[in-house]
Specification:
487 residues; alpha/beta; 40% helix
Length: 487
């Protein structure tokens, strides 16, 4: 077979993937060469037959690519003389991208207040914020999901209520009444995409730029970021053995709201005492302020009777209660709720509708059935038992004398614990050595506000989640730490 005739221009480098659209690929390759001037204005393109032979494709494929170039004005034909690249002035050249520097106040705040990327890969010891989702009854969930989607009600397939599915809100209200002593109407409940969206909505609707917001220090930084991006001035309030120091809060001056984690302070793990709960509610009433109560892991209580939530003690409509299903199910579920004072419920639903018209119906409907059929309460009991066993494995196996590290505390609630370290240098050393052997330890110093003035020894520590992996893996991680720390 004779070789194809030499081409009038160099089109080497064109590689076409037979698994993709050949005509489209050829069009894009020729268009790119025209735009970057490798094929200059007036250049004659090879005949369709010659180009097809060179590339090993059909002539029809080449013709289709040429037709698209003709249609968009990149090439033109001359009767009896072939196909030529059009005059460059006639070609619509895309402008090169320009890296614009945008500096609005909101973007500047976001540059300093955003979430770090989440840890990658499956859970490992001692990841914080992760429940024992290896125990989740996925087969039951799949069966309920299949039942719903097999023949869903047409009434639930259109646009839904931005406050959330009515059945799920009724069941949440009943659950809170029975488990927390919190009496609320379903109309006060707003279903959210996890607790963080609930906190963000509070920041959007309750904060004006320049407002002062009291937050626990150390505390949940993601909440602080949400308030700061809304324009708030963060006021760190210290935490001691009874929780948020209400005396310091009183001396701090006017604050628009206070954000607290009273059931299990994040990250220190202490419980806000009843006396301080009452003082905090009194503070809110006297200062015309709001309280955001984040009950992120309230299902996990291992001894004693849990104190009533602030929202259950509130008689003045000052408390907004944040709850989540993610610490009982798994974080990827992204399903939470916000219990609002009656006067705020409609406004919050309207604001949420502007961000996302309503929540996806399938997850809400399946969770509603999961609760109604009794699976949720059984799963809570199982998760609480598993977390207690994993806590015990950590407490029993932790090295008794880690230099520079205080003994582990008593742990009566939650999914993590906090142990103090005598210096930031020692904190960093312990974490780095643990990371080298595949063990995750979190720095207590990361939970403090950047402008904190507390002594170094007070800010240093380790935060360990104990629920993410089974007892055997906890034991393996502890052995690895002993070897790494030479204990």
């Amino acid at each position: 077979m004779p070789l194809p005739a030499p081409l009038p221009v160099d089109l080497s480098g064109i590689r076409l993937d037979p698994a993709q659209g050949l005509a489209r690929q050829l069009y894009q390759a020729l268009r790119e060469r025209i735009l970057d001037a490798r094929l200059a204005s007036g250049t004659r393109l090879p005949a369709s037959r010659d180009l097809a032979g060179l590339l090993g494709i059909s002539r029809n494929t080449v013709t289709r690519a040429f037709d698209q170039l003709y249609a968009e004005g990149y090439v033109q034909g001359r009767v009896g003389a072939g196909t030529y690249v059009a005059e460059l002035a006639a070609v619509a050249r895309p402008a090169p991208p320009v890296a614009r520097q945008v500096a609005t106040p909101a973007l500047q705040r976001l540059a300093s207040h955003h979430l770090s990327p989440p840890p990658s890969g499956p859970p490992r010891a001692f990841r914080v914020g992760v429940p024992a989702f290896d125990l989740f009854p996925f087969e039951t969930w799949a069966r309920l999901s299949a039942r719903f989607w097999r023949k869903p009600s047409p009434a639930r397939l259109g646009y839904g209520d931005p406050a959330g599915d009515a059945q799920l809100r009724e069941l949440i209200a009943a659950y809170l009444r029975n488990s927390r002593g919190l009496h609320c109407d379903p109309a006060q409940i707003l279903v959210t995409c996890g607790a963080q969206q609930a906190i963000s909505l509070c920041a959007q609707l309750l904060i004006e730029p320049g407002d002062r917001v009291a937050i626990e220090n150390p505390g949940y930084r993601a909440a602080g970021h949400a308030f700061a991006v809304a324009g708030a001035q963060l006021v760190g309030i210290p935490v001691d053995g009874e929780g948020l120091d209400t005396a310091t809060l009183e001396r701090a001056g006017r604050c628009r709201l206070a954000y607290v984690t009273p059931s299990h302070q994040y990250p220190t793990g202490v419980t806000l005492s009843l006396a301080r709960r009452l003082e905090l509610l009194d503070w809110a009433e006297r200062h015309d302020s709001w309280i955001i109560e984040d009950d992120y892991d309230g299902e996990y209580r291992y001894s004693g009777t849990p104190l009533a939530p602030l929202a259950a003690l509130d008689r003045q409509g000052r408390v907004l209660y944040v709850g989540t299903f993610c610490k009982i199910a798994f974080p990827a579920l992204r399903l939470g709720y916000l219990v609002l004072p009656a006067g705020l419920a409609e406004s919050f639903a309207r604001r949420r509708a502007l961000d996302m018209r309503h929540s996806e119906i399938g997850t809400q409907a399946v969770m509603a059935e999961f609760i109604a059929a009794g699976h949720f309460q059984r799963h809570i009991r199982r998760m609480r038992g598993a977390a207690r066993s994993r806590r015990d494995a950590l407490l029993a196996g932790w090295p008794s004398a880690v230099p520079g590290c205080a003994p582990l505390p008593v742990v009566e609630a939650g999914l993590h614990l906090c142990v103090r370290v005598d210096s930031l240098a020692r904190e960093r050393e312990l974490i780095a050595v643990a990371a080298a052997v595949g063990v995750e330890l979190n720095a207590l110093s990361d939970y403090w506000l950047a402008d904190s003035t507390e002594p170094e020894a007070q800010r240093a520590g380790l935060v360990l989640g104990f629920a993410a992996v089974p007892e055997a893996q906890i034991g393996e991680a502890l052995q690895a730490l002993r070897r790494a720390w030479r204990l």
